[in-house]
Design goal:
YojJ-like (1, 6-stranded mixed β-sheet, 12 helices, RNA Polymerase Alpha Subunit, Chain A, domain 2, 4 domains
Length: 468
């Protein structure tokens, strides 16, 4: 019985390999304009396949042409972007790692911005709210809700910026509000150099669950307030560590989780897409072709000899997708018969699907003939006498008196059935009318058909001639 479908391990490797290639292309090109256009081209291909499925010939032809032109446009227009995306320091980064630069954490951005402002002697006040609602303590503010970055945070407090005098409210990786007016602390134990920014920072830290980072424009220092704690930081690393300890980077963790989820979804989509493409090529439809290919007999037992078979070729009826069958050649098809289970004499082997190697996506419907008869034999060695093959006529009045052949017997090997039919090994023809008298060396033996000589294939013939 011939099954209409068989999934081989090569097919699984084929699907997984191409799925990974598609996934790596997504990792390398995601976020680029070329990738967005590529998605549009994939959409056009889907439309073209749907048009073919429902029989819209003109639509299919038009979309196919548009797709070809769009692919060329991507290569020409986005060549610089494609070259930049493909640039990798090593093959490991290209085939395994992520070529996208790792973004800095929110705490690192805040620490770098704070000490960047301190270096330029620009004052600033940054508030990181906790669980409580700091808006109950803020008198007024301006909502901007933008993505946090070192440059954006420094620009908020730039002297020419209209909102540089107020505080910036930062939650997670977002700058939510600027120009915030905060309550002032009434503490009398603060250092004498602390100005209004320091008191505003201490005030919000006392009134709500918040951390206040104060950059002094007079001293060029960075200080922090949390509850009633007040401390000055030596460098950006110390401030970042302080923020990590009091405000775990939940936003960063969530971003990492979102990134991992995005990668998992991209991998799954790549696998499903390649699998669907593979099955679209490998599916069995109504297309049938018939091809004749040679039959190969494989002898696994070294003691057995292949003698003969009733057929040397078989005719296969194949089915599959028209696109596959149109390009298939006889060299891609293999038909083998294993002779390891054979015995001496005639053997009948039934041709099964395991006897054939077919390209993926091609199914075997019928084999003609479905059985083959093979004659096998086992090697045998025989010690056979040597007979001189005399031809011609002796001169009148002469006769051969004696003949001696050295060696008298020779070893011959071949299939046992054939060896049972051979009784004598003959020399090459010797014409007695022209032979010299005496000894003839290196007379060649005639190898019987289907046999072979083992020790020697020549003999020495000695003979005597006399008158009666």
């Amino acid at each position: 019985m011939f099954f209409p479908f068989e999934l081989r391990w090569q097919d699984i490797v084929d699907i997984l390999l191409n799925s990974y290639i598609l996934f790596r292309l997504y990792v390398v090109f995601r976020g680029t304009n070329a990738f967005r256009v590529f998605l549009g081209i994939m959409g056009l291909l889907l439309v073209q396949r749907l048009a073919v499925a429902v029989g819209l010939i003109l639509t299919s032809w038009a979309v196919q042409g548009i797709t070809a032109v769009a692919a060329l446009i991507v290569v020409v227009v986005f060549r610089n972007e494609i070259r930049s995306a493909l640039q990798a320091r090593n093959l490991k980064t290209f085939f395994w790692g992520s070529p996208r630069p790792l973004s800095r954490t929110p705490h690192a951005c805040i620490a770098e911005a704070a000490f960047g402002l301190a270096e330029k002697r620009i004052g600033g006040l940054i508030v990181l709210p906790g669980d409580s609602d700091v808006h109950l303590e803020i008198h007024s503010s301006l909502r901007i809700d933008c993505r946090l970055s070192r440059e954006m945070l420094m620009s908020v407090f730039w002297p020419d910026n209209p909102v540089h005098d107020g505080a910036a409210i930062v939650r997670g990786d977002r700058i939510e509000e600027v120009a915030a007016v905060l309550p002032l602390s009434q503490r009398d134990d603060m250092p004498s150099y602390c100005g209004m920014r320091h008191r505003a920072g201490a005030g919000i830290a006392e009134a709500a669950d918040a951390i206040a980072i104060v950059i002094s424009e007079e001293r060029g220092t960075v200080s922090g307030f949390y509850n009633e704690e007040f401390r000055t930081f030596a460098d950006a690393a110390a401030l970042e560590h302080y923020l990590e300890r009091h405000r775990p980077a939940v936003a960063t963790v969530n971003a990492d989780r979102r990134e991992a989820l995005t990668m998992a979804v991209a991998g799954l989509v790549s696998l499903l897409f390649i699998t669907s493409v593979w099955f679209s090529f490998a599916r069995r439809d109504g297309t049938l072709v018939t091809m004749e290919i040679p039959l190969e007999y494989v002898r696994r037992d070294s003691h057995f000899e292949y003698v003969d078979a009733d057929v040397d070729t078989v005719r296969l009826q194949l089915s599959g997708a028209a696109a596959l069958l149109k390009n298939i050649t006889a060299s891609q098809l293999k038909a083998r018969v294993e002779l390891k289970s054979g015995v001496i004499g005639e053997n009948v082997f039934r041709l099964e699907p395991s006897n054939f190697s077919l390209p993926p996506g091609v199914a075997l419907r019928k084999v003609t003939p479905d059985t083959v008869t093979v004659s096998l034999d086992r090697d045998a060695v025989r010690l056979l006498p040597v007979q001189v093959d005399w031809i011609g006529t002796l001169l009148p009045g002469l006769r051969i008196e004696s003949v001696e052949v050295i060696p008298e017997r020779v070893q011959v090997s071949g299939p046992s059935l054939r060896m049972d039919e051979i009784a004598t090994v003959y020399t090459e023809a010797l014409d007695v009318s022209t032979l010299p008298r005496g000894v003839i060396n290196d007379v060649r033996l005639v190898v019987p058909q289907g046999a072979k000589m083992l020790a020697t294939d020549t003999v020495t013939v000695s003979y005597g001639v006399q008158r009666p």
